[in-house]
Amino acid sequence: MTAADPASGAPDGEILLHSLALLAPCIVPALELAGVRSVVEVGVEGASMTAVLRDYLDRVDGCATGIDPHPSPAARAAYAADRRLELIEAHSPGALTVVGRADAYLLDGDHNHWTVLGEMRAIAAAAPDGHPLVFVHDAGWPAGRRDQYYDPAALPAEAVHPHTFAQGVRPGMTATGDGGFRGEGAFAWAIDEGGPANGVRTAVEDFVAEAPRFRWAFVPSLFGLAVVWAADAPYADALAQHLAVWADSPLLGALEANRIDLYLRVLDLQDALAHAGVGAGTRLRDENARLRARVADLEARLDEVRTDADAMGYLKALRAVDAVEKVARRRRPGATLRQRIGALADAAAVPERIDPGAAG
After folding, report:
1. Is 342 helix (H, G, I), strand (E, B) or coil?
2. How far apart are the first and last CA of the chain?
3. Which of 115, 256, 322, 326 has a CA between 20 and 30 Å from the CA of residue 160?
């Protein structure tokens, strides 16, 4: 599986749009309406949203703090290049307790109920009478009603649902299964969807239920965006009007459902091709092994034939010698072939006698 370059805003050969930066047309006007000058960004990933924030902060002379336990080299470089930006390499929500109060927060870190609810509580505690504006990414499918864990061991055991790193998820299927949208080892899904304390959207709803001075809206695009604000904020009415064209939009919801469906079809095709390739590779390896065994068997049989041929040749030679000896015995009984050959050699060595009569 691959994901689009978030900074480009276009697939550029890759197939999954997922960056919060792509929702800048919704987020930046909201920041302006709220008069935001200080921002906390939880989960900086490739720093694509950081680039959007820098452009905004240039206009308002603001500052930003990033929180990420494992920032990418691009994120480190982006934060190091601007004195208005501070990067804290730590886990959230713990890191939020040391950041202090800010005007706005962008939450795009670990997408599970315990983390998000803890982040929302920390934000509210930092400004008990304030009016923070909070954007929570991945409040829609697949993490809206199902926890996603990058490092489940880092969470309290009681906060972690039974989960799997190997299986994937599909819309409309409450349990995980083979294929589908999965992390391939990078993250785990809660095995079951829904129920108490499960998912990002559930965390937002639970927070608003326990802190009724807050309101929230849901933008059904790019895995879902929850926007949370204080009902008594001076910008509340203007923000609600701005969000009216985004929140719960049937068009955006239909486009998102179609986008996810098409993406899952691509994954299914990739899986089918991979399975076919593995099958072909297995058959090729089996055939190669069979042919190697056949060659080894033929070579062994050839060696046997050669050995038999050598033995047959030797036997034929012995039979030939025996036959010659039998012939020799018939001509001179009792003499062996070797004896007859020896006699011939002796005869050849004696000088020819001269007949005295012939000389005259």
Report:
1. helix
2. 119
3. 256
Residue/partner pairs of 344-348 with CB below 8 Å, 24 or more apart: none
Residue where one domain finishes, among candidates 232, 248, 264: 248
Residue type, 354: I
In a domain, 160, yes or no: yes
Task: Select the more confidently predicted residue: 352 or 338.
Answer: 338
Average pLDDT on 159-186 reads: 96
Domain count, the chain: 2
**Residue 99: Cβ within 10 Å count:** 20
Q: Are residues 54 and 170 in the same domain?
A: yes
For residue 97, what are the domain limits? Answer: 20-248
- 8 A C-beta contact, residue 216 and residue 224: no
Distances (CA, A) of 62 to 91, 105, 331: 24, 14, 128
Co-location of 167 and 214 in the same domain: yes
Same domain, 93 and 240: yes
Going by the DSSP 8-state scheme, the letter that residue 180 receives in this structure is S
Q: Are residues 319 and 173 in the same domain?
A: no
Q: What is the pLDDT of residues 103-142, one digit of tens each?
A: 999 999 999 999 999 999 999 999 888 999 999 999 999 9
Task: Give the domain-ending residue among 230, 248, 266.
Answer: 248
Residues 334 and 187 in one domain: no
Same domain membership, residue 286 and residue 207: no
pLDDT tens track for 273-312:
888 876 666 666 777 778 778 777 777 877 777 776 666 6
d(CA 35, CA 26): 15
* DSSP state, residue 351: P
Give phi and psi for 315, each to the nearest 5. Answer: -65, -40
